[in-house]
Amino acid sequence: MRRSAALASLSRDHHQALVVAQRLRRATDETAGEACEAFHAYWNTHGRRHFSLEEEILLPGYAAYGDAHHPLVLAVLGDHVAIRQRADALASASPASLAQLHDLGARLASHVRLEERDLFPLIEQAMPAARLTVLADALERVESEFPDRCLRSRSRLR
Question: Of 53, 117, 118, 137, which residue is 20 to 30 A from 72 by alpha carbon distance?
Answer without folding.
Answer: 137
